[in-house]
Amino acid sequence: MKRPLKRELTFQLVETARLLRAYVDQRAHQHGTTRAQWGVLGRLRRQEGLNQAALAEQLDVQPISVGRLLDRLEQQKLVERRPDPNDRRAYLLHLTPDGRALVDDLDTVRGEIAGEVLDGVEEAAIITTLETLAMMSERIRLQKQERLTQLAANLADSAA
Amino acid sequence: MKRPLKRELTFQLVETARLLRAYVDQRAHQHGTTRAQWGVLGRLRRQEGLNQAALAEQLDVQPISVGRLLDRLEQQKLVERRPDPNDRRAYLLHLTPDGRALVDDLDTVRGEIAGEVLDGVEEAAIITTLETLAMMSERIRLQKQERLTQLAANLADSAA
DNA sequence: CCCATATCATAAGCAGGCTTATGATATCCG
DNA sequence: CGGATATCATAAGCCTGCTTATGATATGGG
């Protein structure tokens, strides 16, 4: 009976996250933006002056994905791309005043959502869940790493 | 200190799910398919003979999304669209033998993944996490419902 | 029976993720 | 110093979601 329980959790995790993402997206749309753009704005508030590659690294997505998000954010005048004086290939990213105002708004929403979806859940359960998820994240990262290492070994073999 | 804990959990949830989805996708690719297609195949094995609208309903996505997934699955000869004898608008969906073989393979993988990512996690923690996630899902669904109702009320108001 | 309405599948077009490839610069090593 | 290598941003093209709209067919009420 152990296996189905674990399997059940992986399903439930993806399902709950899907619902939460959809809900956050809905709330984001009410403010004229999207979840992905929200992520960019939030990150930029914490660390202004990043270049696109560094931002992509922080958000754990590919630089090309961030580039297109920035195209839209720049069009909406929420973010500014300033040429990096030390590297003519790169831009440094800054929030505009509008961008800063929006992200402050969204921050309030974020807190609201967390309160809503965890209303009435015991603190102990929240802590346990947090720990379990953190553990899972770690295992997944490890697993991914192992598979990469294995892949490299296989490539080396077939080259030989 | 309560607010940050809840907020932290919403972040961790989305993050862990993202990692898990990426990992599952990686495993799916090793079998020449994708997570979304896997979902379709899995559902079809459980309930063969659905039409596209019913399948979309089961998977909780829009019919158009399922339609395109099926285009690719049909091309790969994993799924068959058979005309519905009772409704000339609709197709009934069936797995091909290849499709059935693949989904059996993937089922093994699913169990492997669940074991890997929850290796060493206490059963009690798994149960608590499962309950918490289920609770969150319910709250999100409720919240979404409330917002819809509110929206309808606003529309009725502005119509009056 | 027939017309209004609902439902099935699909098209068009946007968002946001990916891989792979490319041009422009930086950087590092011989 | 100068050429190989690495890095920054972007292009092209794929996948999978979405909304909105449309054509074909079913269905139910008058």
What can you tell me about this protein's structure?
Chain A is mainly alpha-helical and 160 residues long. In chain A, 74% of the residues lie in helices and 6% in strands. Chain A has six helices and two strands. In chain A, a hairpin with a 7-residue loop joins strand 1 and strand 2. The longest helix of chain A is centred in the last third of the chain and has 37 residues, at 123-159. At the A-B interface, helix 1, helix 5 and helix 6 of A face helix 1, helix 5 and helix 6 of B.
Q: Low-confidence segments of chain A, ≥5 residues, pLDDT <50?
A: none
Residues in helix, % of chain A: over 70%
Give me the strand/helix succession of chain A.
HHHHEEHH
Look at the helices and sheets of chain A and give the structural class: mainly alpha
Number of helix segments of chain A? 6
Kindly report how far apart the N and C termini of chain A lie: 45 Å
- Most strands sheet of chain A: 2 strands, antiparallel
Question: Care to give the gist of this entry?
Answer:
Chain A is mostly helical.
What's the helix and strand layout?
The structure is a homodimer of 160-residue chains.
Chain A: H1 2-29, H2 35-46, H3 52-59, H4 63-75, E1 79-83, E2 91-95, H5 97-117, H6 123-159
Helix pairs in contact in A: 2-5, 3-4
Chain B binds a DNA duplex (30 and 30 nucleotides) through residues 25, 34-36, 51-53, 61-65, 67-69, 72, 84, 87-91.
Short descriptors:
flat; 74% helix; 6 helices; homodimer; two-stranded antiparallel ribbon; mainly alpha; 160 residues; DNA-binding
